[in-house]
Amino acid sequence: MYPQRDTCPWTSLDNTGTSLDNIGTSLDNVGTSLDNVGTSMDNTGTSLDNTGTSLDNTGTSLDNTGTSLDNTGTSLDNTGTSLDNTGTSLDNVGTSMDNTGTSLDNTGTSLDNTGTSLDNVMTLSHNLSVAFFG
To answer: Region Disordered: which residues (predicted)?
Structure first.
């Protein structure tokens, strides 16, 4: 007489192929850039112009004609003398803060755990038959 107690001899904790796979998942910022293309600090043609502004005292004289103190025609003439800054400007034409194409690229850099798995293949809770001999 051989009484037996079979308790699922091939019951296993199988997680075959179950993995922590992040295949191809990446931190990609492809082409994302800090571009300020053509953005410039231009003050084109802005000038400190005082064109033709003058200290003119044309013909103003200290005339004492016929007096023994004759200063005939002696004048304080500053004819045409001017404070001219014609066309002098604060020009920064085309000077720009360009970072053309400079980018924060992490192309293809990924967090890959390809094929790394939690495998417990064929780990058995094998309860062998207990035989009683009598």
So the answer is: 38-87
Residue by residue, pLDDT tens for the chain (134 residues) are: 555 555 555 555 555 555 555 555 555 555 555 555 555 555 555 555 555 555 555 555 555 555 555 555 555 555 555 555 555 555 555 555 555 555 555 555 555 555 555 555 444 444 444 444 44
In a domain? residue 4:
yes
Domain count, the chain: 1
Q: Transcribe 46-85 into DSSP letters.
A: -B---TT-B---TT-B---TTSSS--TT-B---TT-B---
Q: What are the structure tokens assigned to 122, written together?
A: 């064929």
Within-domain flag for 26: yes
